[in-house]
Structure to design on (951 residues):
């Protein structure tokens, strides 16, 4: 058995509902057929009647096995249509029929089947065609020899009833389909996120090992230099570092959002005062390009922080043409003359211009003494498009719009209610010959119009006004009493009871608009009034049920549908939320992987030369180099344990202070990113305290979230006095 | 004599430790054994009082389990760390480790820590208390306002006398508070299986420069 994978879980439930509908229709059909079978040709009863029974049962079984219904439904439609066309031939009695052909209950169902399996338009089309055909059959003797008026009335009812069901199913079905799509997408996204998370965890483990090896080497070398074990350890650290830097598995492209994140992170860590604006949207760059851009931006930001003395720094990310990235970093600092590049700027030339060239990009450095510096980095995706297979997926995340579940407040549904009500008026007018007096019918229709207006007024606001809901109930009871007062005695009045459908439709609307109790009370009152009337008129129990029970059963269906829709809305919200969360997680992990490249490059630059020297068994470390080992270890430790608190610049200042014998400790009890203002203020206070020659000890601590002081800096001086600076979330001094 | 052993997956550290101890006169610490993993160590069960335990061993074992196993076998555990992340330190503390000292510290400091642990003292250091303070959900659920205040000042860099002066209480009460926080932390059993814990772990692990998660 091939399980159907296309129809989602929920769409399948709609089909099961339709199958159940077909099966349920067999009950009234059987009642009608029981009286007519003696007059019908046996071949017809066996082929058409038997066929309808078999397909109804078959649909039920297949739908619960999770298979699509299309084939079965089309057979059902064909049987019903052929049955209707051949009805006059199959009718074998000379006398005209005493009731309407039993097949008519199946016509509406067939229209619904076609709508669900082949599309709403087909369903409507079929309903109209079947209605016309049925009207013709009705006028033949086999169809009770109805008058033209009666046939038209039947046609209207048939077309209208199936239309209402088709529209309702269309609403539910569309909602289900989109929910299925969303659930599928969000499932896929969260799977991707989970895989990413696992990869990331592995990465962190590896990074931890790299740290462990490198720092162990530095400590061992400082304490016990020139030992064979230490050089072996150093060799291991060098190997691990190289291993970690080896190109990773095929990576997904980095999106514009992620590139923003990367640049913000790199720049924010070095130049807290920078203002970053971005207009990158639809963009995907290969990961190695993103890594290099990150490194280059870091280099530029480092130069700005170290040399520019800039107050304002503006970073702009743009995409002038599709697939192109332009990052501009402009400062209002001291600037320099590019023609006479001092030695310290050589780094900028090599690490910025060369790196950009290596990825096929371009760097432009504009500066004049006293006029600030602007660095423009551009990269275009000429021929280096990210893999096609992955790009649409990324795009899909961004452009997919979550569909809304249509509500009753929407214009098409309001229009539908009006159409149904007006059609009932039409039925009422065509039955004017059946009533004893005409004016109460028109009065009742005026009341019905008022009730409809009240029901649909301010339909954008749910639940509807309680007084309005009760008014509708009152008006409908008024309509019922007026119509009943002119109905003929001891006789089934046919379509003169047009009001029951109006009552049903408006009460269902009241229910859907959030006044369930009022609607149910209304239905109860209506049933009571109708039952009293039917009994006093001496009508049979069947007729009593026919009048009173109709609206009741429709209310039940509406109530169930409503509960279903509300539950679905909840699921949709939940799906949306989880899919947004998955997107966020993916974005973060991508960026982290890229940042890791940046970090590894930095680590290699920082400790690489030292490690190589330690690894050489023939090289003897000097005392200065052993001190450098400890200094680098401390620096790495700070960055690892309190990366939140230090920038590259403060790390330099801390290294110098430690070299002077100052005890500097950084404590991060927060773990999450500090606000930029706080970082900027902290950098300023730290550099002041660290450069003070009287300082003996400095402890900077990020408090856990929720404390008034986001950061505290404690400085102890040589004379034993101390200074405590507490910074609030805006970076202002809070405590002293 | 204080018999000491080192469990560290780096041979250079084990040998370096033994060499460093020889250069330092006037102490009673003797290094009697070394092992790369806790399994290897417990197989031999050397006669040692204090065990220096590295947090990140090559077999990927959990510091909490490692500390518990060693204590069960009658050893006193002193964490001997490089810059392992705070989560691992917290695991070891929850497992009952008595103290922590950094590999990069001068050997004299390490010796003093070993002596304190051998003496049965609960070692309270800024490193340990800061790690506890950073465990925000523990602090919120288990510490009173006064304990939090003491913890914040101590983690912020103040020594015990200064904390006492700031809060106008005696030095002994400050020490009592810190000890109580420390013991409470070990006693509160905290399984790390919940989703929130995993998330926190990811954040903690993610703090490699310059990576910090956006919030």
């Amino acid at each position: 058995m091939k399980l159907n994978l296309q129809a989602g879980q929920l769409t399948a439930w709609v089909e099961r509902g339709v199958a159940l509908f077909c099966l349920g229709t067999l009950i009234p059909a059987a009642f009608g057929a029981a009286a007519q079978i003696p007059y019908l040709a046996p071949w017809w009863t066996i082929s058409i009647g038997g066929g309808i029974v078999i397909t109804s049962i078959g649909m039920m079984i297949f739908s619960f096995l999770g298979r699509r219904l299309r084939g079965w439904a089309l057979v059902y439609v064909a049987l019903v249509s052929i049955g209707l066309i051949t009805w006059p031939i199959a009718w074998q009695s000379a006398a005209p029929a005493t009731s309407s052909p039993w097949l008519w209950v199946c016509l509406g169902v067939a229209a619904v089947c076609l709508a669900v399996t082949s599309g709403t338009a087909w369903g409507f089309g079929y309903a109209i065609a079947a209605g016309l055909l049925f009207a013709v059959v009705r006028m033949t003797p086999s169809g009770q020899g109805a008058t033209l008026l009666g046939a038209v009335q039947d046609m209207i009812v048939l077309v209208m009833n199936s239309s209402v069901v088709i529209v309702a199913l269309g609403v539910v079905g569309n909602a289900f389909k989109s929910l299925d799509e969303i659930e599928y997408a969000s499932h896929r996204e969260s799977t991707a996120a989970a895989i990413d998370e696992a990869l990331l965890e592995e990465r962190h483990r590896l990074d931890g090992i790299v740290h462990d090896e490198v720092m162990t080497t530095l400590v061992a070398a400082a304490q016990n230099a020139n030992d064979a074990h230490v050089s072996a350890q150093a060799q291991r650290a060098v190997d691990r570092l190289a291993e970690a830097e080896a190109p990773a598995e095929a990576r997904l492209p980095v999106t514009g959002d992620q590139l923003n994140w990367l640049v913000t992170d790199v720049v924010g860590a070095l130049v807290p005062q920078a203002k970053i604006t971005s207009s990158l949207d639809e963009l995907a760059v290969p990961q190695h390009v993103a890594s290099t851009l990150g490194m280059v931006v870091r280099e530029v930001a480092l130069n700005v922080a170290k040399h520019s003395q800039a107050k304002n720094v503006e970073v702009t990310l743009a995409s002038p043409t599709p697939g192109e990235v332009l990052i501009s970093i402009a400062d209002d600092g001291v600037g320099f003359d590019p023609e006479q590049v001092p030695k310290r700027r050589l780094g900028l030339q090599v690490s910025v211009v060369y790196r950009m060239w290596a990825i096929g990009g371009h760097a432009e450095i504009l500066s004049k003494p006293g006029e600030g510096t602007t660095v423009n980095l551009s990269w275009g995706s000429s021929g280096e498009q990210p893999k096609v297979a992955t790009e649409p997926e990324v795009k899909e995340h961004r452009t997919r719009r979550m569909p809304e579940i249509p509500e009753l407040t929407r214009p098409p549904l309001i229009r539908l209610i009006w159409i149904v009500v007006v059609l009932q008026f039409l039925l009422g007018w065509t039955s004017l010959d059946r009533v004893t007096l005409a004016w109460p019918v028109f009065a009742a229709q005026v009341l019905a119009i008022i009730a409809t207006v009240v029901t649909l007024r301010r339909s954008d606001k749910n639940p509807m006004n309680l007084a309005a809901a009760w008014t509708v109930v009152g008006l409908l009871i008024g309509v019922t009493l007026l119509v009943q007062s002119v109905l003929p005695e001891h006789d089934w009045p046919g379509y003169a009871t047009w009001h029951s459908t109006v009552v049903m439709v408006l009460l269902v609307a009241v229910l859907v608009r959030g006044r369930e109790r009022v609607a149910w009370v209304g239905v109860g009152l209506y049933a009571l009034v109708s039952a009293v009337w039917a009994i006093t008129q001496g009508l049979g129990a069947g007729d009593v049920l026919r009048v009173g029970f109709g609206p009741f059963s429709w209310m039940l269906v509406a109530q169930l549908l409503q509960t279903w829709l509300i539950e679905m809305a909840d699921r949709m919200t939940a799906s949306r939320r989880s899919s947004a969360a998955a997107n966020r997680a993916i974005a973060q992990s991508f960026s982290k992987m890229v940042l890791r490249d940046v970090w590894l490059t930095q680590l290699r630059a920082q400790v690489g030369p030292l490690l190589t020297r330690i690894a050489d068994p023939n090289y003897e470390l000097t005392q200065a180099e052993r001190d450098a080992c400890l200094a680098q270890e401390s620096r790495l430790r700070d960055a690892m344990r309190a990366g939140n608190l230090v920038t590259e610049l403060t790390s330099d200042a801390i290294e110098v202070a430690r070299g002077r014998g100052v005890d500097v400790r950084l404590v991060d009890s927060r773990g999450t990113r500090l606000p930029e203002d706080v970082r900027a203020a902290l950098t300023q206070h730290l550099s002041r305290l660290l450069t003070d020659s009287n300082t003996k000890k400095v402890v900077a601590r990020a408090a856990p979230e929720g404390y008034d002081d986001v950061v505290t800096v404690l400085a102890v001086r040589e004379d034993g006095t101390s200074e405590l600076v507490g910074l609030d979330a805006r970076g202002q001094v809070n405590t002293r | 004599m204080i018999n000491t052993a080192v469990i560290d997956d780096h041979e250079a550290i084990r040998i370096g430790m033994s060499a460093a101890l020889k250069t330092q006169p006037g102490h009673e610490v003797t290094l009697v054994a070394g092992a790369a993993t806790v399994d290897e160590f417990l197989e031999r069960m050397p006669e040692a009082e204090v065990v220096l335990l590295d947090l990140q061993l090559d077999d990927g074992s959990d510091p909490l389990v490692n500390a518990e196993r060693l204590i069960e076998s009658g050893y006193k555990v002193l964490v001997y760390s490089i810059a392992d992340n705070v989560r691992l330190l917290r695991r070891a503390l929850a497992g009952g480790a008595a103290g922590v000292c950094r590999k990069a510290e001068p050997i004299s400091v390490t010796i003093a820590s070993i002596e304190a642990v051998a003496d049965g003292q609960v070692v309270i250091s800024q490193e340990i208390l800061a790690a506890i303070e950073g465990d925000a959900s523990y602090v919120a659920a288990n510490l009173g306002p006064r304990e939090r205040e003491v913890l914040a000042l101590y983690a912020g860099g103040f020594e015990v006398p200064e904390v006492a002066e700031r809060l106008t209480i005696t030095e002994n009460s400050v020490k009592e508070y810190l000890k109580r926080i420390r013991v409470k932390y070990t006693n509160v059993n905290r399984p790390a299986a919940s989703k929130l814990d995993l998330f926190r772990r990811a954040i903690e692990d993610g703090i490699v420069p310059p990576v910090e998660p956006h919030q």
